[in-house]
């Protein structure tokens, strides 16, 4: 397969400046190589990154069914236990901002190692503790360790391919959390996370390659020694099964970062209808819960909310990566901090709002607030491509000015070196003339 051939096997070639020239600044051709990783390797790497990103929503949702049990065992009110959810969401929004910027400069692999080390240590502490204060502190650490993996996953996708997919697994984690907390106790929830994280982290530590374009370019530049993974062993052991497992993460190689292509309109035309469906579902859910109808009603509406709002968010997430391909992890983290902080506020105020206004009006108010911000997306559809072109032109101008300054510095250095040589020649000539005069005398 032609796409599976590395450029290094075809012959030598010059290495472009990937850090200075992100893919959005280059007009792609059909033959342009975005990454030297083969299609199979890309599937495996992206699948690993997406599975690593699974730990953040897993740690959040698996905890929910155990809230009442934890409240009873620790002898604290439900309101205090809900604070552990709020603090988790707050840290979940802030932590990716730090780890994303770090990964964009130091590399994805080292960032993954740091995240999982913190996450595993926090889960061990949570599984052993029986104190409310310890619960709060360790939940902060757990959130900080796991939340960065979502931004890193999008960063890995942005490093390897030109568009991305991400699918959540919250439903499965809710079922697992409920079974563990009811049958084995709430501590087993954190033991499960600890075992799962360790089992995943060891292969990642030894086999996951560096993908950050500032560190390894298109993958052909050797990474620092500590970042080199045994990628060949990974390829040899599971390359046959990767065709099937990685198919869900397959992305076409056609370049999508075309300056004149309206990616904002293409993405938001899909996201807006889903967003409005989700908002209507939130309103309906509030009134269904207010009148306490049959259980089937809330379940159906929760399904509609989960599907539509999650799908809309993922479309927006993909758009963020497409607009900022030079820093995909940082862009995702910026989006994530807004989402998580709003989620933290909503989780803190929804119970008082429901008590004061009733569930119907409380959820209606939240949905109307969301709908009130939706015209901003219409503005992006209208002016987004124009803004993106202006950004690219500004970046190109900045890169050209930087290149001119570097060339000027190089020319000045060469002139100084030539001047130094000429001065040295004059001094040698003067010394020889002085010696000749002395000999004549």
UniProtKB/TrEMBL annotation:
Residues 1-26, 395-441 are annotated as: Disordered. GO terms for molecular function: transmembrane transporter activity. It holds the Pfam family MFS_1. It is a multi-pass membrane protein. The chain crosses the membrane at residues 44-63, 83-103, 110-128, 184-208, 270-289, 295-316, 337-354, 360-385. One of its GO terms (cellular component) is plasma membrane. InterPro entries: MFS (IPR011701), MFS_trans_sf (IPR036259). The keyword Phosphoprotein does not apply. It is found in: Membrane. Keywords: Membrane, Transmembrane, Transmembrane helix, Transport. Residues 395-426 have a biased composition (Basic and acidic residues). PANTHER family: MAJOR FACILITATOR SUPERFAMILY, QUINIDINE RESISTANCE PROTEIN 1-RELATED. Belongs to the major facilitator superfamily. CAR1 family. This is Major facilitator superfamily (MFS) profile domain-containing protein. It comes from Lipomyces starkeyi NRRL Y-11557. The lineage of its organism: Eukaryota, Fungi, Dikarya, Ascomycota, Saccharomycotina.
């Amino acid at each position: 397969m032609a796409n599976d051939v590395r450029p290094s096997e075809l012959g030598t070639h010059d290495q472009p400046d990937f850090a200075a020239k992100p893919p959005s600044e280059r007009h792609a051709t059909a033959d342009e190589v975005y990454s030297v990783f083969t299609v199979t390797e890309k599937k495996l790497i992206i699948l690993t990154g997406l599975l690593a990103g699974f730990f953040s929503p897993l740690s959040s949702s698996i905890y929910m069914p155990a809230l009442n049990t934890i409240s009873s065992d620790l002898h604290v009110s439900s309101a205090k236990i809900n604070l552990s959810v709020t603090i988790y969401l707050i840290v979940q929004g802030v932590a990716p901002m730090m780890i994303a910027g770090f990964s964009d400069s130091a590399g994805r692999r080292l960032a993954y190692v740091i995240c999982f080390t913190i996450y595993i240590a926090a889960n061990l502490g949570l599984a052993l503790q029986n104190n409310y204060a310890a619960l709060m502190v360790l939940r902060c650490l757990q959130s900080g360790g796991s939340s960065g993996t979502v931004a890193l996953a999008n960063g890995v996708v942005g490093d390897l391919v030109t568009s991305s997919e991400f699918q959540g697994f919250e439903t499965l984690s809710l079922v697992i959390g409920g079974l563990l907390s009811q049958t084995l106790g709430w501590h087993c929830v954190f033991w499960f996370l600890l075992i799962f994280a360790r089992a995943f982290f060891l292969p990642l530590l030894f086999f996951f390659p560096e993908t950050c374009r500032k560190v390894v370019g298109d993958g052909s530049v050797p990474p620092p020694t500590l970042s080199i993974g045994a990628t060949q062993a990974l390829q040899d052991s599971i390359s046959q099964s990767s065709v099937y497992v990685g198919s869900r993460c397959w992305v076409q190689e056609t370049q999508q970062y075309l300056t004149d292509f309206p990616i904002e309109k293409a993405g938001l035309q899909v996201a807006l209808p889903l967003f409005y469906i989700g908002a209507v579902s939130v309103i309906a859910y509030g009134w269904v819960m207010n009148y306490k109808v049959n259980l089937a009603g809330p379940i159906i509406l929760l399904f509609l909310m989960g599907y539509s709002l999650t799908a809309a968010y993922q479309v927006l997430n993909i758009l963020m990566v497409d607009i900022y391909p030079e820093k995909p992890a940082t862009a995702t983290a910026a989006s994530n901090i807004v989402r998580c902080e709003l989620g933290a506020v909503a989780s803190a105020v929804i119970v008082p709002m429901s008590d004061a206004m009733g569930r119907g009006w409380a959820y209606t108010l939240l949905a109307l607030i969301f709908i009130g911000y939706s015209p901003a997306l219409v503005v992006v559809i209208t002016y987004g491509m124009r803004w993106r072109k202006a950004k690219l032109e500004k970046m190109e101008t900045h890169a050209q000015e930087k290149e001119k300054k570097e060339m000027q510095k190089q020319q000045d250095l060469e002139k100084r070196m030539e001047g130094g040589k000429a001065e040295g020649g004059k001094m040698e000539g003067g010394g020889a003339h002085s010696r000749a005069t002395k000999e004549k005398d």
